[in-house]
Amino acid sequence: DTAVSQTPKYLVTQMGNDKSIKCEQNLGHDTMYWYKQDSKKFLKIMFSYNNKELIINETVPNRFSPKSPDKAHLNLHINSLELGDSAVYFCASTPLAGVGGTGELFFGEGSRLTVL
Amino acid sequence: GEDVEQSLFLSVREGDSSVINCTYTDSSSTYLYWYKQEPGAGLQLLTYIFSNMDMKQDQRLTVLLNKKDKHLSLRIADTQTGDSAIYFCAVSNNDMRFGAGTRLTVKP
Using beta carbons and an 8 Å cutoff, which residues of A are at the interface with B? Predict the structure, then answer.
C-alpha cells in the first residue's frame, strides 16, 4: 500500500564505493524527484524526471546518475562515494499542478546514506 | 539569498499558538505549501494555498499569504506536544523549492 517506497532505508558504506538507491511509486504520477537532505535538514532538489525524461538536473556532481526505467521508478546511482555524500535522500512524486493535482509532492520515507 | 527563507527554530508552550513565517522570491509561484516532517520520516503535506487566496483555514491551521510582500505564514492554534516537528515552507512553479525548515518545539 505504500505510495512512494525507497530501498534501502539505511546504507552504510566506505568512501570510494558505488551504491544505488531505488524508488518506486504506485500513484500513477508522471513526475518523480530526488531530493537531498543534509544534516541541518536543508532539502535540496537534485533531479526531476517526467515520464522517464530528465527535466531538472541541478548542480550535482556527475558521480550521481539517475535512471528511470519507467515512469513508476526512479533510481539513483552514486559512484566513488565521498564523505560529503552522507545525507538522507528522499524520492518524491507528483501529478503536477494543473495536471490533475495541486503539485503536492508525495515523499518516500528517505534513505539514510552514511559514508565512512 | 535563498529562494525560500524561514527561521530555523521556534519554541512555544502547550496550548499557545505557534506562528511560523516564510518569505520567498518567486512571485510567479502558483501554489504555496506547508509540509511537516517528524523524526525519521519523510515530509507530509500539511496544507497548501493557491496564489490567488489570502487566507486558508483548516481546523487548527491558518495559512496567511501576503503576495505583495511575498510572505507566507502558518499559524497552529492550541499547539500540542504532538505538533513538535520540522515545518517546511515550499513554493511551486516549475518545480518545488523548500525553505530550510523551522524546528517547532512544544514544551508541556
Answer: 4, 33, 35, 40-45, 48, 56, 90, 92, 94, 97-98, 102-105, 107-110
